Amino acid sequence: MAMLILAAQALPGEIAVMSINHGLRAEAKSEIALVRDACAQLDVPFEARKVELARGNLQARAREARYAALARWAGEERLGAIATAHHADDQAETLLMRLARGSGIAGLAGVRAWGHAPGTEVPLVRPLLAFRREEVRDIVRACGIVTADDPSNADPSFDRVRVRQHLEAHDWLDPHALAASARHLDEAWRALEWYAEVDFAEMAKREETPAGEPRYRYVCNVPRAVQVETVCRIVAALGGQVSRSEAGRAADRLWRGDNASLGGVLATCAYEKLEGSPLTVRVWHFAPEPPRQTH
Predict the structure, then answer these.
(1) How far is CA 35 from CA 26, 76, 93, 131, 198, in A?
(2) What is the pLDDT of residue 235?
(3) What is the pLDDT of residues 95-153, one digit of tens each?
(4) Which secondary-structure segment (H or E) carries 47?
(5) Which range has the top average pLDDT, 60-74, 148-162, 224-238?
(6) What is the pTM assigned to this prediction?
(7) What DSSP letter does each residue of 161-181 carry, written as one string?
(8) Distance of alpha carbon 259 from alpha carbon 290, whole angstroms
(9) How far apart are CA 110 and CA 93, in angstroms?
(10) Cα(235)–Cα(231) distance, rounded to whole angstroms?
């Protein structure tokens, strides 16, 4: 609601709003009506949609369905970007949760100020990351707009709520400082992504098997973090899909000289001399995994 108020002031006539009903609570309809009424007061186009959730982690499935619906809507309406109202406290909570799970740099980069909606090319921006939760609430109160609180935001069965309660109970944990650390990690992650793009472009060469199928020859001479990203790119280029943890395990096997199978791709390790040099380097070969024989 705070982002709606600020955006309507900053970009009059240039925004639209969508509310998502995840079908989890009966109160959702009345809450969406509050947003619709606020949009009417501010002369902002409004649309509501209901999504169906796949089985699994409830919050994760809800997030996936929400972003998918927003991305479809943005495409239909030819909107330039999606904006979500994540703030500094959200960022701090995300960083602590991912630290507790042993996430790598990509995860610890937290909620990014800009990027793309998951799995799409639709730009995604988060303009309120510098705001604290109370500052966001103060904006809404000052405008006299009625809001509703989602009771799940106080349900300790969710990891995020327990982290939020821990932050509130320990004032030495500064959400602004934690959010700053996430920004620094995001900068490091973007640098790593850039290096991995260069490594993939320069050191991974597309070839063909005798049968005419695509394969890759990768001269691997970079730190492990870059190896993992390049392996992910090679597998994707061959039509496979792999997580970073799977790519990391495969890279470890290949570094030891063992073969690895991941995402429908078979990877093998060899040692070859550089042309015109006495140096020997690791070369990893990637090709679609041959079909398994059945009896």
Answers:
(1) 16, 21, 26, 21, 45
(2) 96
(3) 999 999 999 999 999 889 999 998 899 999 999 999 999 999 999 999 888 788 777 77
(4) strand 46-50
(5) 224-238
(6) 0.80
(7) HHHHHHHHH-TTS-HHHHHHH
(8) 14
(9) 9
(10) 6
For residue 127, give the DSSP letter: T
SS3 call for 115? strand
Return the SS3 of 114: strand
**Tens-digit pLDDT profile for residues 19-39:** 999 988 888 899 999 999 999
Proportion of the chain in helix, strand, coil states, percent, rounded to 5? 50, 15, 35
Radius of gyration of the chain (CA): 24
Among 240, 234, 232, residue whose Cα is nearest residue 286: 234
Element (H, E) at 19: strand 17-21
Range scoring the smallest mean pLDDT among 2-16, 209-223, 251-265, 267-281: 267-281
In angstroms, the CA 5 to CA 182 distance is 27
Rounded CA-CA distance 17/48 in Å is 8
The contacts of residue 6 (CB under 8 Å, 6+ apart) are: 127, 128, 139
Q: With 0-12 CB in 10 A as exposed, 13-18 as middle and 19+ as buried, what is 9?
A: exposed
